[in-house]
Design goal:
The structure holds two protein chains of two kinds. Chain A is about 10% helix and about 40% strand. By secondary structure, chain A is mostly beta strands. In chain A, β10 and β11 form a beta hairpin. Chain A is globular. Chain B is an alpha+beta fold. Chain B has a six-stranded mixed β-sheet. The longest helix of chain B is centred in the N-terminal third of the chain and has 28 residues. The chains are: A mainly beta, B alpha+beta. At the A-B interface, β4, β5 and β7 of A face α18, β21 and β22 of B.
Chain lengths: ~170, ~750
């Protein structure tokens, strides 16, 4: 566990991340409740409103269903439900981030999208070690910009983890 | 040479592969005792075509093997030798060798020269044996390539051929040398000007059609520089209408005479008949007796003299077909032609394929083309989008006043019909009957059962079931393995079968069908069945997590574990590299599944379920609560408004409905899918009677919305499979609707019921 976290410092993040020569990389930040999250910008395909989701029976409650994204069937996950936030409403301002992970297209619902920021290697600290959380796996580190604290998550690992129920063979 | 020929290699490869598989399937089916002359001819023709074209392309190793095989087949065909199992075996092996050589030429794998030499020798020995035993004496085996001039016997037109070689051809002496060879194969060739760096002038005396000469040289000559002029006919009889393309073989003067005398309507062999479309027409007038495959004629074919007389009003197919038997060059010409057609070579290749089976007549023509799969896929995708757009338009227009917008409405109606037709025809392009795959299995069964000393009969059914070409290619290997597995582990030896009171001959059944939007392929055998105890003990040995109380189905699935084998000894049948785990993986990769049913002593049945990749289905959209689902139309038997008296409660099993004397279980869709706000009063909703997998049930829904044609979109692409849902589709308003997997829904509804019981 410890090894995994120290191993995921920016220098070791590998090729799947937008990095310039100095080790800086770009993130899309969004909010979920009080917290601000950051994900690798290269995983983001587009941002759109929450609309016309077709519910699918017998799936976890945070899987809202599927939408028609220009002819492609795309599942939508509400991260607010996944992260057990209390205040979950859907309005015309609800935002869906369409991500492209592991050759799949998946949409996530978040409270709001903030901005795109560049974080240098020195701005990213390793994530603290959580005692029992296997879910902590998808935490890549904590980024600091001025007084903001950004939770950097490995969105691919999060979405493809069995507990998400998005992939074949995952538990429901 | 390579520059000019390489583009035709592909055509040759495809053609040869087709001929090989035709030949193989015919050989496997042929009745050894009383071979059908028609079939023998077809086999012979396939071998002949391969020989001819391989010679043309300089693949001499293939030519050598086919030459001997052809000689042997020719003797059988003419009933100079009796067809024996040895001959069939040798020919089948030769086919394998040829395939190997072909693959090597393609740059896939190594050529096994030893095997080629072996099989040639074997065939040669059979030839000699057959030659000795035949009373009349067989014609001597001719050298593979005869370069000596041959036209003398027949006489024919004199052509002067003038052309400027293309730069590539002119530089390469080999090209010209080959050309000279091809031409001299047609008749007597005189080289007037060798064309060193410039004009070529040749003089050819031949009965071959001018067009064929042109086609042969065309691609070597610079544009517009080719001139082939006839100097005057030698023997009018022979040339006028004698399409006896092969009629000028000195090796077979009898045949040639026949072609000549019967020249009026003797259409000779396939190629010329096709090349000369007008001739075919005129043939139509001739007595109307096509007699192409006229059985009586076939029978009389043994004595050529009869054919000769017959030739007058008939196509003289068999008369003429014998002529080419002894020599290659005519076939060389054929394939050069198809090469020379350059860009148009694709249609030619298709035509060649059509020619191969005996039953395709000489109608020919450009009836098919080869197209790359990507182009078809692109078209299918575009049509899929078109269907969605059309549905959206229809939806938008439904709010308009049909009186005011009458013309628009009419246009939309037309569009809908056209779209539907277009879609159907486009979809059918990619679909191929599964017989393409099945046809190779008789051979597999034959070979393997011999190797294992077992008696096995293969029964095929549902061969016309169509599935996507992509799936066809990928299902072949897994299916082959399943069949080999059944042969090796399923079917017992004749002694053991006898002891078990079963017929000595085991049966393997192979069945394909469409079911609930899936292709179901069943491989069944009436063998010993799987041995539960053996599998379990083996699994324990391997440290797999198993218990004695596992269900049979779970135990059977263990055989798909990597490296799992219950075979006591590894035979070369089961040790062929592809394990059952690979079978399972391949099938899962295609989005399918494999199920096993087995009963000790009775047999085993493996069921492969494959989804249709992209398909369109006729669906009924139904409303449940405020959700819309699509029910595939082919499951629906009827829909009805239930009456109180029809519904009965069956204690904890739920409700049943009585429909015309039958009691059907009621499945409430809103319960299965947990849909809030749906109609719960049976009297206010609708019952749809559906049947899937032998189960008839009534689905309770709120209302029927309408019938549509929908494009199936896979949920797996970005998501995963959901039980009870076979896919999704996009409705006219852009919304996603889920397609109900009826069999899945029945299974879902039984889950809780079974638990309660």
């Amino acid at each position: 566990m410890l090894q995994q976290i120290t191993g995921s410092s920016p220098a070791a993040m590998g090729v799947d991340v937008a990095q310039d020569a100095l080790g800086a990389q770009e993130f899309l930040t969004f909010t979920l409740g009080e917290e601000e999250y950051a994900i690798d910008i290269l995983r983001v395909q587009e941002i759109r409103g929450y609309d016309a989701v077709t519910r699918i029976a017998n799936t976890p409650h945070f899987i809202k269903g599927v939408i028609n994204l220009r002819g492609t069937i795309v599942p939508i996950v509400d991260l607010r439900l996944k992260f057990n936030l209390s205040d979950v409403t859907y309005s015309e301002f609800t935002v869906v981030i369409i991500l492209s992970v592991a050759e799949r297209v998946i949409g996530i619902v978040v409270d709001s999208v903030s901005d795109v920021i560049t974080l240098g290697a020195e701005q990213v600290k390793p994530a603290p070690q959580f005692s029992s959380s296997v879910e902590g796996d998808h935490l890549k580190g904590i980024g600091t910009v001025d007084d903001r604290m950004l939770i950097i998550i490995d969105i691919e690992r999060l979405l493809l983890s069995p507990s998400m129920g998005l992939t074949e063979g995952s538990v429901q | 040479m390579a520059i000019d020929m390489s583009q035709f290699y592909q055509v040759f490869f495809e053609e040869a592969a087709e001929h090989l598989s035709d030949m193989e399937s015919l050989l496997v089916e042929v009745d050894i005792g009383t071979p059908d002359p028609e079939e023998m001819n077809a086999i012979f023709r396939a071998a002949h075509s391969i020989k001819g074209s391989s010679g043309t392309f300089g693949f001499n190793d293939m030519t050598e093997v086919t030459h001997v095989m052809e000689t042997l087949l020719d003797m059988v065909r003419k009933e100079e030798a009796e067809l024996t199992t040895d001959i069939v075996d040798a020919c089948l092996d030769a086919g394998d060798v040829l395939r190997n050589l072909l693959a090597a030429h393609r740059g896939e794998g190594e050529a096994d020269r030893e095997a080629a030499a072996d099989v040639s020798q074997r065939l040669e020995a059979l030839c000699q044996e057959a030659g000795r035993s035949s009373a009349g004496g067989a014609p001597a085996v001719e050298p593979v390539r005869t370069n000596e001039t041959q036209a003398a016997a027949s006489g024919g037109s004199h052509y002067t051929i003038e052309f400027l070689p293309t730069d590539a051809a002119g530089r390469d002496a080999e090209v010209m040398e080959n050309l000279h060879q091809e031409l001299s194969a047609m008749g007597r060739l005189e080289v007037l000007e060798a064309g060193e760096g410039g004009q070529c002038r040749l003089r050819l005396e031949t009965s071959t059609d001018r067009d064929q000469i042109v086609a042969l040289i065309e691609f070597l000559a610079q544009d517009g520089s080719l001139a082939v002029t006839a100097e005057g006919a030698g023997d009018a009889d022979a040339t006028d209408e004698a399409y006896g393309f092969f009629g000028d073989e000195p090796s077979e003067p009898a045949a040639e005479d026949r072609a000549t005398q019967g020249g009026d309507e003797a259409y000779g062999f396939f190629e010329s008949a096709e090349e000369n479309a007008p001739a075919s027409e005129s043939g139509g007038d001739a007595d109307g007796a096509y007699g192409f495959f006229d059985p009586p004629q076939v029978a009389s074919d043994a004595s050529p003299a009869i054919v000769q007389d017959d030739a007058d009003g008939k196509y003289g197919f068999f008369g003429a077909v014998e002529a080419p038997a002894a020599d290659t060059p005519p076939a060389n010409v054929t394939s050069i032609q198809s090469g020379a057609a350059a860009e148009a070579s694709a249609p030619k290749a298709e035509r060649a394929r059509e020619k191969a089976p005996a039953k395709s007549g000489a109608k020919g023509g450009d009836s098919s083309i080869r197209v790359s799969v990507e182009k078809v896929d692109q078209m299918i995708n575009l049509v899929g989008e078109l269907v969605i757009t059309q549905a959206m338009l229809q939806q938008s227009a439904s709010d308009l006043d049909p009186v005011v917008f009458e013309r628009l409405m009419a246009g939309l109606g037309q569009l809908e019909r056209n779209t539907r037709d277009l879609q159907e025809s486009v979809m059918s392009i990619r679909m191929m009957p599964i017989s393409v795959v099945f046809s190779r299995f008789p051979r597999v069964v034959r070979d393997v059962s011999r190797k294992l000393d077992k008696k096995v009969e293969l029964k095929l059914s549902g061969e016309s079931t169509e599935l996507d070409k992509g799936l066809i290619e990928r299902i072949t290997d897994p299916l082959t393995h399943l069949i080999r597995n059944s042969l090796d582990h399923g079917i017992e030896s004749p002694e053991r079968r006898r002891a078990a009171g079963k017929p000595e001959t085991g049966t393997i059944t192979l069945n394909a069908s469409h079911q609930s939007g899936y292709i179901i392929i069943e491989v069944g055998d009436d063998g010993a069945g799987l041995n539960r105890d053996k599998i379990l003990s083996k699994a324990k040995e391997r440290g797999l997590n198993v218990t004695d109380t596992m269900s049979d189905a779970d135990v059977w699935q263990l055989i798909f574990e990597p490296g799992f084998s219950t075979a006591d000894k590894v035979t070369d049948v089961s040790g062929r590299g592809v394990g059952m785990d690979v079978v399972k993986r391949n099938i899962t990769d295609m989005g399918g599944s494999v199920e096993i049913e087995s009963m000790t002593g009775v047999g085993t049945r493996m069921t492969v379920r494959l989804p249709l990749t992209l398909a369109i289905l006729d669906g009924m959209s139904v409303a449940v609560g405020n959700e819309t689902y699509v029910l595939p139309l082919n499951y629906i038997i009827e829909s009805l408004q239930p009456e109180t008296a029809q519904i009965r409660t069956l204690s904890e099993y739920g409700h049943v409905i009585q429909v015309r004397g039958e009691f059907l279980p009621v499945i409430c869709m809103h319960e299965v899918f947990g849909i809030p706000g749906a109609q719960t009063d049976y009297m206010k909703g609708l019952m749809i009677v559906v049947e899937a997998g032998g189960n008839k049930v009534a689905l309770f829904i709120d209302a029927l919305l309408g019938q549509h044609q929908v494009v199936i979109k896979s949920l797996d692409t970005n998501f995963r499979r959901i039980q009870g849902i076979s896919g999704a589709t996009i409705m006219g308003d852009g919304q996603v609707a889920l397609i109900i997997d009826v069999a899945g829904v029945i299974a879902l509804s039984r889950g809780p019921a079974a638990m309660a019981a």
